[in-house]
Each structure stands twice: as structure tokens, then as C-alpha cells.
Design a protein that fits this description.
- It is built from eleven helices and 54 strands.
- It has about 650 residues and is mostly beta strands.
- The protein folds into three domains: about 200 residues, 4 Propeller (Hemopexin); about 190 residues, Hemopexin (4 Propeller), CATH 2.110.10; about 200 residues, Hemopexin.
- Strands 5, 6, 7, 8 and 9 form a five-stranded antiparallel beta sheet that branches. Strands 22, 23, 24, 25 and 26 form a five-stranded antiparallel beta sheet that branches.
- A hairpin with a 6-residue loop joins strand 20 and strand 21.
- The longest helix has 8 residues.
- The radius of gyration is 30 Å and the shape is elongated.
- The two termini are about 55 Å apart.
């Protein structure tokens, strides 16, 4: 099986983005570069040691060290930071059973151990005492995990010699590796092991005991974040891209040639495929596997290239990949044009849509059957396909179409320009929204304006309504976008005052009217369902402010008007009870009393027995104790914008 090589793994933190996509990649010019940095790291010849943790990279040379984290590069002296005098011979990191990071530094015949920035008692001590069997004068070291070595171990390099130290047995064994070269620094990332010697970087396979290849001659340049020969891709040049998908962490990824663009809007950055994922572009297709029943593959990202497919957990390639497409997805043709996931809530069963020419191959992930279907010319020969917030898109060059994954229907307003809607290129309207904060108040989720309604549908999707728009809340990991209510609930007109679901239907209340939609994969207005509210809910007045159903009383819908609550049984079609929202407050003597506080209810939603009652941006919490009996939970009111919309900053009522 072909081994994936993660080139220059230290660049996992990414490259600085610029305001446009047509500039040369210059990673050295971080805002924090050369702060307290008397030595230009880009002028050094080779490195002596390197350590990479989950979020920080350390590069060592002589008595200097360079640190790369989310803020950029900075320079420090080794002795000031770690207490090791002068230069070091090797360094590596281990993780303890308590998830503490243990840093080891080797110099001459001594070893230092640091945890949480402090040298442990009894250190430095002799290397031969800490690691019996390991000789003095090692030139590099790296931790090796059991899935890559025969046991959890540390690999020590001395010139061309390799010593494998078994951490359990506490003994070292000298290894003979094929084509081994002098290793001056070693590091590990996502299953790949890399050594450097001068300006050369090469990869090794510990289990096989051999050198597997050399990286490009400019690899050390990229390791140090210095100017290189590669250029960033101009995604705004109108030539489109090769594939589009998401990672498990919610980041959108766009592939083109040798580059992967990560994120949308202001958070976007470009990364090289060989550096980040260990493969060379261009790729053919990519999708995010979606099937909660399949625990092994759920939310894994698949990337296709010719007859091979890679599987990633975020940027980490899974063991055993790449594989042949024919073995991973029997019956799927190659090379593909595009691929996109389709969950059961949108495709009746968890599926993957593979697109090639004018044919779609629908893979049912439950039955493992593939059905071929001809697709319309508008969405034939897609360069890429993408599912975003429950909507499906086919990209052709700089244009894209939205399509229905079941009927292949394309709304008449398409095609549209990807440079505006997905790439946010300078000079487009969405660029102004995203980069300058120019967002109309009605569609700005973070402006503290009250919502009109909150509701879940029978498929588990959650919606927030305001004016003519709605947002999907259950897909918040992948971002937010406002959509027109009438685009999804065809046949509805007006403003949503309240909404709820019961059994297989979704109910919308507007004024004194009620709309009932069949809520399966898509919403369909039931014939004759538009009615006057009191015809359905006898005894309930007009002017309903909110509605909700608690799973603890699944047949009762609670309708809220002002402070009054009406419980109506949907199965028996009768009014069960009425009540009031009572808020417990404390007086100055700290004796609790009950007060009918004016609620000004804007919306409400229930999960099991817990009810959130929205009053503008604040919301109060209640527990359902029984029919029409709600216990107020005395605590600081929550924030709708923070809790439901993940807003870190709010913009008041400004546009």
C-alpha cells in the first residue's frame, strides 16, 4: 500500500491569507515576524532539533529557537525558555497518561525533562540512566507510536544508526535501516516520520525500517515559513476549482491544482496539498461521509484522485489509505467529476451522489446498492459538487447551480457567480458583507433583534425565523446563512408568528391562520390545510406569540399568548388546560415570592422538558412539571445570539 508522506508537517497551522487571491505566497511576513528575532531563521543552514505539539511548533538551531503558533513566528533563546544551556542535540515530546506533554531535551550525555514549562526534579540526568541502551551523542529523536512501530517507543538517531527504545520494557535495540542517511533532526506528524540532514529532508518508514523518499529541495524553506517558489492560486480568476467539501471540524475546503483553500469569508487560508494532506493535486472529487449509524466512517472526508481514494479525519489521513475506489465503493466509476453526501433527512436514506458526465450514481449507505440515473444538462459535467446547510450545488467554472438531490430541479435564478457567493472575491457584493461588516439588519443574526419563532421539524432540523428569513441552526458547525421562508415552505405567505412540529407534519401560525406542511425530505403544503386558527384549535385565541411541543408530552402543543399558555392535545383534538408563565423572584429580605412578570414572549422552544422562552435577545428557562405547569429556573438569562447563533460580538440594531 502506498504510504502517504506528509511533507513539511509543521505548516499545519496554515499560511497567512491576504485580501485577495492573486498574490505570491509569502509565509515569512507574519505580523509577529522578527519581533525580538536578531537572527533571521531564513538564513540558517539546517536545523538541530524540532518539536511539534497540537498547536505549536518549535525549531532549534545553536542557542536559538523559533516558535510558530496561531499568532505567527517568534524568536527566543533556548536557555531562557527551557533552561538548557547552549545548543541541543535532540528533542522530542511524549504525552503522559494524564495528557500532560513531557518535553525531553538531549545535550551531550544529559537529558532534561520539562512538564508545563518547569524542569522536573532530578533533572538533568544521564541519558544512559533515563534511556538504558541509548548511546551518548545522539543527533535526533522522535516518539514512535504502536500503530507505526512494533511497540510504543522512541527512535534515537546517531549519525546513520537507529536505536529503538521500548518505553514499556525500558530497553533499547539497535536497528538496521535500508538506505539510512545521517539524521540531524526528526519529527512526526499524522503517521509520517521525517528526518533532516542539512537542507535535505527525507521520509522514513519505522515499521519497514527504510528510507521511503526525499522531499523537494525547498522543503526546509517551507518548514521554516520562508519565501519559496510556489505561488498561491487565484481563486477569483474565473477558472473555478476541482472539488469542494468539508472537514469534520466544519471547515469548508476547496481544491484546485496543488492548493487547498480552507474556510469561507475572512477566515480563509491557502495550504498546499502535499504539505497538508500528503497528496499531489489536482484531485477529482471530495465529500464528507454522513451516516451516524456507521461510526467508523461518519464525518470522514473522502478525497478522490483517479482510481484511488483517501480518507481523512480533518487533515489526518486514516490508516490503510489510499485505497482503490473499486474496493472502498464497489460499482463507482472513475475518474469522477464530483461527489456529494446526502443525509437521510434530505435523500430519504443516507446516501452519496457520485457524478460523472450526465450520469449520477446514487449509493445507498444502508443497502449498499447503487442506482444509476441520468441528470439534466444544467448539472451534467460538474467540476465540483457541495452540500452546504442542507442545500446542494453543482459548480461549472465560476458559475454554480443549486439543485434538488431527488428531483434534480434547478430554481430559475441560476446559474450564479461563485466569486460572489462562495469565494467572496473583491468587488462583489458578498465581499462587502463579509469583509466590511455591511449586513442588512433583517438578515444579520447577531444584531439582537428578536426572533419571530424557533422550531424543530420531525426530521430533527432546527429553524429560527425572523421577518421573511429563516436560519438552519442544526448545521451551525458549517456556518450560518439566511434563506427566504417562501423558498422552503412553498405556499406560505406572511410572517411566521409561531411554528412547531407534531408527528410527520410541520405547523406555521401567522396571524389567525394556520398552515400545515408534510415534513419529510422536503416540505409540502397539505391540501386544504390552510385554515383559520380557531378551526383547528378550538378555545385558543388569536394572536399566538409562540408554540412548542415537549417530547415529555409529545401529543400536547403549547400555544403562548402574552403570559397565558394553552395546552392542546393534537391526538384527541381538545384543549387540555390553560396556565400562566410564573417567574420566581426574590425580595429584599430574600423571601421568595411568585410574581406574574410581563413576559413579552417572542418565541419558545422545548427540548425534553426544558423550555426556552425568548424575550428579544435574552431568554428564560423553565422546566415542564406537568400539563400547563412550568417551574421557572432562577438563573442569569441566556443570550439568543450567543446560544443559538454562536455570536461572539453583537451589533445592536444597526444594519
Amino acid at each position: 500500500m502506498k504510504k502517504l508522506v506528509k511533507l513539511c508537517a509543521f505548516l499545519i497551522l496554515g499560511f497567512p491569507a491576504t485580501s485577495s487571491d492573486n498574490t505570491q505566497w509569502m509565509p515569512t511576513h507574519s505580523p509577529l515576524d522578527n519581533i525580538d528575532d536578531p537572527l533571521d531563521r531564513c538564513s540558517i543552514q539546517g536545523i538541530e532539533a524540532a518539536i511539534k505539539t497540537e498547536d505549536t511548533t518549535y525549531i532549534f538551531k545553536d542557542d536559538n529557537m523559533w516558535v510558530l503558533n496561531q499568532r505567527g513566528w517568534s524568536h527566543k533563546k533556548i536557555q531562557d525558555e527551557f533552561g538548557v544551556p547552549g545548543s541541543m542535540d535532540a528533542a522530542f515530546v511524549l504525552e503522559s497518561e494524564q495528557s500532560e506533554k513531557k518535553f525531553y531535551f538531549l545535550k551531550n550525555d544529559n537529558v532534561w525533562l520539562q512538564i508545563k514549562g518547569k524542569t522536573e526534579s532530578g533533572y538533568p540526568r544521564l541519558i544512559t540512566e533515563e534511556f538504558p541502551g541509548v548511546p551518548i551523542g545522539v543527533t535526533a529523536a522522535v516518539a514512535c507510536f504502536k500503530e507505526d512501530c512494533d511497540e510504543d517507543s522512541v527512535l534515537f538517531f546517531k549519525e546513520k544508526e537507529v536505536y529503538s527504545f521500548d518505553r514499556t520494557e525500558q530497553k533499547a535495540e539497535i536497528k538496521t535501516w535500508e538506505n539510512m542517511e545521517r539524521c540531524e533532526a526528526a519529527w512526526h506528524w499524522a503517521g509520517s516520520y521525517v528526518c533532516s540532514s542539512g537542507s535535505t529532508i527525507f521520509t522514513v518508514e519505522p515499521r519497514k525500517g527504510q528510507v521511503t523518499g526525499s522531499l523537494k529541495e525547498d522543503a526546509l524553506t517551507y518548514l521554516l515559513g520562508c519565501p519559496g517558489k510556489r505561488k498561491r492560486v487565484n481563486f477569483c480568476d474565473g477558472h473555478g476549482f476541482d472539488a469542494m467539501s468539508s472537514f469534520k471540524n466544519g471547515k469548508t475546503i476547496i481544491f484546485r491544482d496543488e492548493v487547498m483553500r480552507v474556510g469561507l469569508g475572512r477566515s480563509k487560508s491557502q495550504k498546499f496539498l502535499d504539505v497538508e494532506l500528503g497528496l499531489h493535486g489536482p484531485v477529482d472529487a471530495a465529500f464528507l461521509f454522513h451516516s451516524p449509524k456507521d461510526h467508523e466512517r461518519h464525518l470522514k472526508t473522502y478525497v478522490f484522485q483517479g482510481d484511488l481514494v483517501w480518507r481523512f479525519t480533518n487533515t489526518h489521513v486514516d490508516q490503510g489509505y489510499p485505497r482503490e475506489v473499486s474496493k472502498e465503493f464497489p460499482g463507482v466509476p472513475t475518474p469522477l467529476d464530483a461527489a456529494v453526501e446526502c443525509p437521510a433527512s434530505e435523500c430519504r436514506s443516507d446516501s452519496v451522489l457520485f457524478l460523472k458526465g450526465s450520469t449520477m450514481y446514487r449509493l445507498d449507505l444502508s443497502s449498499h446498492q447503487i442506482k444509476e440515473q441520468a441528470i439534466p444538462a444544467k448539472i451534467s459535467n460538474c467540476n465540483a459538487a457541495y452540500r452546504w446547510l442542507g442545500r446542494y450545488y453543482c459548480f461549472k467554472g465560476a458559475k454554480f447551480y443549486r439543485f434538488n438531490p431527488l428531483t434534480w430541479e434547478v430554481p430559475p435564478v441560476y446559474p450564479r457567480d461563485a466569486k460572489n457567493y462562495f469565494l467572496h472575491c473583491p468587488g462583489t457584493s458578498h465581499y462587502g458583507y463579509v469583509h466590511k461588516g455591511i449586513i442588512p439588519s433583517s438578515s444579520n443574526r447577531c444584531n439582537n433583534l428578536p426572533l419571530d419563532a424557533l422550531a424543530n421539524d420531525p426530521m430533527g432540523r432546527r429553524y429560527a425565523f425572523r421577518g421573511p428569513y429563516y436560519w438552519r441552526l442544526d448545521t451551525s458547525q458549517y456556518g450560518f446563512h439566511h434563506w427566504n421562508v417562501t423558498d422552503t415552505w412553498h405556499g406560505f405567505n406572511g410572517t411566521v408568528d409561531a411554528a412547531f412540529s407534531w408527528e410527520e407534519n410541520f405547523y406555521i401560525i401567522s396571524g389567525n391562520h394556520l398552515w400545515i406542511f408534510k415534513a419529510n425530505v422536503q416540505f409540502k403544503l397539505l391540501p386544504g390545510s390552510l385554515s383559520v386558527l380557531q378551526e383547528k384549535f378550538a378555545g385558543v385565541p388569536d394572536g399566538i406569540d409562540a408554540a412548542f411541543v415537549c417530547s415529555a408530552e409529545k401529543d400536547n402543543v403549547y400555544l403562548v399568548r402574552g403570559m397565558e399558555i394553552y395546552a392542546y392535545n393534537m391526538k384527541d383534538n381538545n384543549l387540555v388546560c390553560t396556565g400562566s408563565l410564573i417567574v420566581s423572584v426574590q425580595n429584599r429580605t430574600r423571601k421568595t415570592r411568585h410574581s406574574l412578570v410581563k413576559m413579552n414572549v417572542e418565541a419558545a422552544i422545548c427540548q425534553d422538558k426544558r423550555v426556552h422562552v425568548l424575550q428579544g435577545d435574552p431568554f428564560l428557562e423553565f422546566d415542564l412539571q406537568g400539563p400547563c405547569q412550568f417551574n421557572y429556573i432562577a438563573r442569569q438569562p441566556g443570550s439568543v445570539s450567543k446560544h443559538y447563533f454562536n455570536c461572539t460580538k453583537t451589533t445592536g440594531n444597526k444594519s
